[in-house]
């Protein structure tokens, strides 16, 4: 059992003031495998106070010092590779290979991207006799979701540290152990006390007091729109800055000149990756009308190859859904798809054969989906593909943008002029053409209800900075 009932505050592991705990469940076995502190207002107050005390000195540390600190974090992070992989496989249910190649690597890349960004990042700019200075905003509250335990935390932490902002982190209570290892990594790397504080607990007990705290100057949140809106409402009371990374319902648009085999593989991967629990999942698959039958046949064959099962096995590609609640939500959406008249082509309700224990869902394909159906408009957060047909490029663009979200878009085909037209037309923070890699130096964030602000690399650092104009500095 992993019982970590302490909080990391002011450079030390301390007992939570609440004396209460939250169980953490392994979604592949449905068994409790550990617990964390159920933090409260008093824990938050202590953590914010510690961060506040170190704010001025951390803000003024030379950039080289903060960069060196990120360098030490990178080394300490690498040294804990196996522990991070093990813990994410237990708490999130990601197959071991994905825990390594996706989750572990993404966390590492964000620290590296922040380190690299500091090589050239301009914190000061002279304009005539005047100076513009960018400096850390103050104590930042970070609240993160469960679906990418190292990625979501590391990208915020790397940016805040690079900017010189001390933080209080509240990770998801469903996947808290990766963040506990991060705390140990920062301790090992000599992050000054007070700069990083970890308060475990739930949204009500820790997230709300953090959003309300008068000494927190910024809330950086990743998660659902409902929670984002609550945090924004709390933050608005004393005009805290907010950075919100929320949900998505991203289109994957297939051109009619695409290599169909390759495109089908890419489309299926965009749906099943991380068991569909990805904010940028390309789950609205837009296919030219005349290619519908050929696409569906190949997509069903491709889905059938996806190995769902025990995340501890190296051949497994897709693990369970993170929790019973999320599993039930996926089932409800599949039922809605059936009820609203979409054609179930593959998968469907219930668990895959032979997987009765664990929150395993069936990779699923719906055809004849109208973009107004619930399964085309709402985020399912499970491995469910909705195939929608289009007649021409203008209609594809219209369907792609007919959503409250705007997080990502994928375009696949050969005619580069058409691909570029689509990429410029999609209203989303990220568009990926074919297999182009999405590197961590590119900004990440959403249009419309997918969020406010941008993260990753230098754009992420900007989020944690205030801008000061000093007139006459050079007179
Ligand atoms: P969630 O909103 O339920 O929880 C996210 C975090 O907020 C958790 O740590 C939770 O404890 C905390 N929280 C809950 N209520 C709170 C409150 N009132 N005040 C402050 N904090 C509170 O989201 P989730 O279920 O963990 O994650 C899934 C959602 O996250 C999906 O909608 C997904 O699209 C979104 N997401 C977005 C991105 C992105 O970058 N855009 C990335 C990953 C996930």
Automatic annotation (TrEMBL):
Top EC class, one word: oxidoreductase
E.C. no: 1.2.1.3
InterPro entries, per database record: Ald_DH/histidinol_DH (IPR016161), Ald_DH_C (IPR016163), Ald_DH_CS_CYS (IPR016160), Ald_DH_CS_GLU (IPR029510), Ald_DH_N (IPR016162), Aldehyde_DH_dom (IPR015590)
Catalytic site positions: 245
Record flagged with keyword NADP: no
Gene3D superfamilies in alphabetical order: Aldehyde Dehydrogenase, Chain A, domain 1, Aldehyde Dehydrogenase, Chain A, domain 2
Molecular function terms from GO: aldehyde dehydrogenase (NAD+) activity
Keywords from the UniProt entry: NAD, Oxidoreductase
Family matches, as CDD domains: ALDH_CddD_SSP0762 (cd07138)
PROSITE patterns to which the protein is assigned, alphabetical: ALDEHYDE_DEHYDR_CYS, ALDEHYDE_DEHYDR_GLU
Taxonomic superkingdom: Bacteria
Catalyzed reactions per annotation: an aldehyde + NAD(+) + H2O = a carboxylate + NADH + 2 H(+)
Aldehyde dehydrogenase domain segment(s): 13-470
Family (UniProt): Belongs to the aldehyde dehydrogenase family.
Protein name: aldehyde dehydrogenase (NAD(+))
Organism: Staphylococcus muscae
